[in-house]
Design goal:
2 copies of one chain form a homodimer.
Chain A (H helix, E strand, L loop, with lengths): L18 H5 L1 H8 L1 H20 L6 H13 L4 H8 L3 H13 L3 E6 L2 E9 L1 H21 L5 H14 L7
Antiparallel strand pairs in A: 1-2
Helix pairs in contact in A: 2-3, 3-7, 4-7, 5-6
Chain A binds a DNA duplex (30 and 30 nucleotides) through helix 6 and strand 2.
DNA sequence: CAGAAATCATCTACCGTCAAACAATCTCCG
DNA sequence: CGGAGATTGTTTGACGGTAGATGATTTCTG
């Protein structure tokens, strides 16, 4: 092995061939597979948000529960699950944690003793206000690659995919 | 539990139509939380695709592996993992299944015996062609809510989020 | 050349989600 | 009234994905 050009790495042996194409195949993939592009983008956004929120007092689902309770009043876990698109069995632990932190109360629904009436406490309102305040810059960071118009377009398209009628 | 203290009443104790706001809270949520809209849309799309592909010979990740091998030639599992954004440990099982079905071969890379050279077999090429043919209508169904222009826009925005340069 | 550090594939432990089963309760209908 | 079926919250088990450690091999550094 005196004069043979030492291939520095497996992927780019000689720099002249398809190494570039191979290392950038993901870009080509996203053109063929919108579902994969969407999925990977969602993962990237969620990861960015979770990183910034790690160590904070609320997880994303917990924040969403407080937010909905503030918007529509006391709710059963079933209603929270349906509207937030969180599975019922996951909602159990979510409300458990919020109740343990004193941010919501679980009261029995007066007319349907199967269901709870999950209610926001004053502490919960305060925690929600703080979480809402902290959320804007986190979202701005996660969507920093998009202009405000593009971000609005993305929301419009995802709403169409979810069969949500356009905003009034 | 004879005389429990009377809990606060629900937000909509008697009015039947007050549920309108409560039953449609998800629409309001998507306006505040683009990350949630994106996440739920991705789940909906993935679920629609998985449903149509269930029973088929290839899963989505397996299809992606064959597709990349056909596009760039033999690859190490590491390269497949990086470009397809699939974790290395998951790629193991993915290639295992493809090898078991005879669609790829695992050969040791001649210059780096740590790595495999995963190679498409003739059967793999045939399976890929069939899967590619079956994919178009599945994607059309999953993205049926969007016009072709909107679908292209969605791809463009997700590519920006993933920091992929615009297509040539 | 020898040892340190990095890399590739793999394995294992862990976490979060989903489907199914369950008890308690409500609604419907004869 | 009373039983069948649906609904609410919960638990359980299976599944998929991720992080960290491991063994084999390569590359780097002195």
């Amino acid at each position: 092995m005196a004069t043979a050009p030492r291939p520095a790495r497996l992927a780019s042996p000689s720099r002249a061939d398809d190494g570039g194409e191979r290392r950038r195949y993901f870009a080509a993939l996203t053109l063929d597979r919108p579902d994969v592009a969407l999925c990977r983008a969602t993962t990237a956004v969620a990861r960015a948000i979770d990183e910034q929120l790690s160590g904070g007092p609320l997880t994303v689902p917990q924040h969403l529960v407080l937010k909905m309770l503030a918007a529509v009043g006391s709710c059963s876990q079933q209603e929270l699950s349906e509207q937030l698109r969180i599975d019922r069995s996951v909602m159990v632990g979510c409300v458990d944690a919020l109740e343990g932190a004193g941010l919501v109360r679980r009261e029995r629904h007066p007319r349907d003793r199967r269901a709870y009436a999950v209610t926001l406490t004053p502490d919960g309102s305060a925690a929600l206000a703080a979480a809402d305040r902290a959320m804007a810059p986190v979202l701005d960071h996660a969507f920093a690659a998009l202009t405000p118009d593009e971000r609005a377009t993305l929301v419009r398209l995802t709403r169409k995919l979810l069969d949500v009628p356009p905003a009034d």
